[in-house]
Amino acid sequence: MFLGRFEHNLDDKGRLTIPVRYRELLADGAYVTQGFDRNLMVLTPKAFEHVFEYINQMSMTDPDARHLKRLIFSNAEFVDVDKVGRILIPQYQREFSRLENRAILVGSGDFFEIWSPEEWQRQNEALQNAQANEHRFAAFNLPTR
After folding, report:
1. How many domains does the structure of the chain reveal?
2. Domain with 79 in it: what CATH number?
3. What is the pLDDT of residues 117-133, one digit of tens each?
4. Which of 126, 109, 99 is CA-nearest to residue 7?
5. Structure pTM?
6. Domain containing residue 98
7. C-beta neighbour count of 67 within 10 angstroms
């Protein structure tokens, strides 16, 4: 499970160090794809396979399904974790997510997200708005058992 938040540097080639506690979960590599909020999503091969199967069952005649397929699959790249614990983020993904020399890695359960510090600050400010959260999450039933 991917939990927590980390800040790491990207080197000049676009390599990003993965937190030690995430590396074991990425032993078989990972898929990096465009997220929905000017971020990137990093999924294990198993998680990406689930997404792949689910999306491929959607109707080709549904325009929103076609858009989702294009968004996820045309922006997906398989990456290996190198021997020092880094992944290479392709240039077009760095440009989309506005990554330069720093990145915020945010655990999201079955996957983690990569954010530029500026985009994450905006996102985090929205998440910390207690008044908005009262309405935003009211419909969710989050049982602990």
Report:
1. 1
2. 3.40.1550.20
3. 999 999 999 988 888 88
4. 99
5. 0.92
6. 5-116
7. 10
